[in-house]
Structure formats: C-alpha cells, structure tokens
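Hey, sorry to bother you again with one of my protein questions. A protein chain has come my way and I'm curious about its shape. I'm sending you its amino acid sequence along with the backbone structure tokens. I owe you a coffee for this, so here goes:
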Amino acid sequence: MSTPTPVQSLIPARALSRRELLRLGLLTGLAGLAGCARSSAAPALWATAETLPKRWRRALPAPWQFHPLKDASEPEPYGKALRAGAALLAMTDGWLTALPTDALQPIEAPPLEGRLNNQARSYLTSLGSELAARVMPVGVSPWVMLFKHGEAWKAEASKGWQVLLDPDLRGRVVLPRSPRLVMALAERIESRDSLQRLRSQLLTFDDQQALRWLLQGEARVVVLPLQRCMASLRRDPRLMAVLPDSGAPLSWTLLVRSAQTREPLPQAWVEQAWTMPMLAQLLADGWMSPLPRVELEPALTRVPVAHRELVLPPQAVLERCWSLPPLLPGEQAALQERWRRSAP
C-alpha cells in the first residue's frame, strides 16, 4: 500500500517498455478470459488487506467475495488480479497508472458520483475524462507525520513539513518509497536545496515497515497516511500524529471495474460506508468518505474528542491539501532527472 500506500513513484528507465509489455500481456489475458463462461463464478473484489477498512470489507454483500492481494510490492499485482478474473479492484491512487485504461470499464454509478465533494471532483478532473469515468473515489486520507516522543517538534510540525529538516532528526526520518511524494513534500519546504536536504535526513525509504522503525526506536518520525496510524495512536500514548496547517498530500482509495465483468458496482455497499453508523466508525479510523463536510460533521460526535480535529481537520487546512495525479511522460522524465541530481 506490503501495505497499500500510494506509490507515486517515478518511472525508471525501463518503465515505459514494461508498461507496454503489461498492456499487451494484460489485454491478451483478458481477451482469453472473455471467451470463458464465468457466469457461475461469484464476482470478486481484489485488494491488499489494508487498502479497505476491515469493518467495511467484511460488509461486502453476497455473492461478492473478497480476495486479498498478498503483496502489492511485486510487479503489476493488479494486472495479475484482472487476469485471475477480478471484477472489481480497490487500490490507492499511486497504483492507478499500473493498469492500461482500456483494461477498465466505466464505473456507471451516477448516484455515487453526484455525492462526491469538490476535492474528489477536482481529483477526477485531473485524471482526464477517459480515466475519470473509470474511477470511483471511495475514501481519502491525508499523509501525516507520526512521531514517537515528538513533543519537542509538535509546534514546528503543526506549521509545516520543514520540521523534517531539524538537525536533531537527522538520520531518524523514514519517508515513503515514492520519489514523487518526497519531491512533493520538498516543494512545500521553504529552503534552498530542500529536496537534497530532506533526503540527507533519512534513515530509510520504507513506508511498508515504517511503524516498525518507529516503534523499535530507530526512527523518531515517519510519514504515512493517517488511516495507517490510527490503530497505533489509540494503543500507544508515546505516539503523536501531526497534519501541518500548510496541508498535506492526499491518499485516495479508488474502486475500478474490469473491462471484462458484467457485474455492476455494488453501490449499496459503497453507500453503507458513506452512511451512519459506519461513516463515523471509518472516520474514527482516519478514513474519510469523500463527501461534503456537512455530511461528515455529524459523525464527529462518535469520534473521541482527542482525535476529532485530526480525522476531520479544519476546512482551511483541508483546502490546502493536494492530490498527486498521474504524471505525463514529459513530466516523468524531468522529475526523474531532478531526483537523480538531488542524491545527497
């Protein structure tokens, strides 16, 4: 995300050719599946176990079945799921470009699309009309800084991401294995050579094992989506999560449909996550439904007071958060070169 974190990574030198090979292999495999009779098979939703909140995943209605992707860090896991007959995939936004658009079909859920908030609509617009029609945002979570014994950095962290350059944190910072995301954070730090300086602060790039680094004491701060922090925050009083007032990148949870399925999106199941009491339960877990704020605020009464402003930040802070849409080929090359030159 392996954990379902958004892997907004740059495409390395051979990535375009790999994508072309994926397109050929995936579409060939799907064409083969199209010739098979699958009417007796139950429709399957595939995702990594942590992509969807457990309580919502368990509410998936019959005849739908959930199939866990055991390792989303391996090459092209979602393409393999489609070839295995997945009707529906749940993924974070960083994986979206791993699938050719023509391997998917339109979502066709106007009632759900009509409920999306402005931020979700803006994210879909950034995808372009062809891809946006094939994507349904169902949840969103900001990336935050999670500290262990972080009282000394709380005030500065509340202002912005520049706290990650604090000399006392050198060698104690864990960032995601996503050059795209790291560069996005560096752009919000007002410092000369902010990207190179940020990289020099690192203990490691490892969103997969970030909590382990933090809990075992090697790291003092890690950057993760809020939804992956909440369980630890409730258990361990030594931990503190901070969403800066300057905003943060957003991690989107998306549903996409295979081009080969005849199963419609299970809209009632999505609506269940967007309706009380599950709406409040998921919000308390740091997983925000992409609905207008007026629909989310009543759910705060069921969230512990200590976490309310964290799971539903002030509107001004939310408006300063931003999404990372897919890169165009020219942008990929430029950012890849910038990443190469920023090595400490």
User: Anything to note?
Assistant: The longest strand covers residues 136-148. Residues 15-34 form the longest helix (20 residues).
